[in-house]
Amino acid sequence: MRAMPSVASLIARRRVRRAAAVSGALFLAGAAAMAAGVALHRQAAQENARLQALAEASRRELAALVGDGTSVTAALDRYRRLVASGFVGRAEPVALLEVVTTASRLAGLAAPVVEIAAAAQPEDHEEGGRARAFDLKVAWRGLHEEELLALAAQVAQRAPGLLQLRRCLLRRHPEGVGLAADCEFRWHVFEPAEESRSR
After folding, report:
1. What pLDDT score was predicted for residue 185?
2. Separation between Cα atoms, residue 127 and residue 172, nearest integer Å
3. pLDDT beneath 50, residues of the chain
4. Positive/negative CA dihedral, 151, 157, 161, 162
5. Is the Cα dihedral 64, 65, 68, 71 positive or negative?
6. At a CB cut-off of 8 Å and minimum separation 6, what does 138 contact?
């Protein structure tokens, strides 16, 4: 017949079991806390990386908008040059005719026959104004070929706006020495909105 355990041994066994249960619970709690800590650390690292990427993207966008001031200065310089050249402003055909007449006189030529008319193309309307184009026909008489090249270049350089030489028809001057030159130019001007409205 087996001996009954003593009260002291029963109490000791219960304490051991209770301690083992508490240790197990503490271990599981510690493991769960560690796993939660790792997950939180990973989430924090990911969120930090995302915020850093957003900050860097914002810095790049701001730098592109602000720049170092050179892009804004360059744009203003280009605009001022266009205004100074007469490309931006009201189209003034009379000023163009004066350029052609003056250049011809300085070259020792008689005043040419000049025709100017709006080009047969749709005008390009922009929010800030409209681009206008005109066809200019100039008939010079009594000049030499090298004089024609210099004269056409001088007219294009001094003309307000953008003047492009499209073609020249050369033939012997039937009534004198030298050549007869019938040249066609295309004249471009951009009229700002206030200039267009004032017409």
Report:
1. 92
2. 48
3. none
4. positive
5. positive
6. 100, 112, 113, 114, 155, 181, 182, 183, 184, 185
pTM (2 d.p.): 0.56
Distance CA 46, CA 82 (A): 52
pLDDT confidence of residue 21: 67
Q: Which two tokens mark 159?
A: 């003309």
The whole-angstrom distance between residue 20's C-alpha and the CA centroid of its chain comes to 74
- Tell me what pLDDT residue 114 has: 92
3-state secondary structure the chain: CCCCCCHHHHHHHHHHHHHHHHHHHHHHHHHHHHHHHHHHHHHHHHHHHHHHHHHHHHHHHHHHHHCCCHHHHHHHHHHHHHHHHCCECCCCHHHHHHHHHHHHHHCCCCCCEEEEEECCCCCEEECCEEEEEEEEEEEEEEECHHHHHHHHHHHHHHCCCEEEEEEEEEEECCCCCCEEEEEEEEEEEEEEHHHHHCC
In this prediction, residue 67 carries a pLDDT of 56
Residue 142 and residue 66 in contact, taking contact as beta carbons nearer than 8 Å: no
How far is 181 from 112, CA to CA, in rounded Å?
10
pLDDT at 90: 82
pLDDT at 149: 86
Residue corresponding to tokens 């993207």: 57
pLDDT of 160: 86
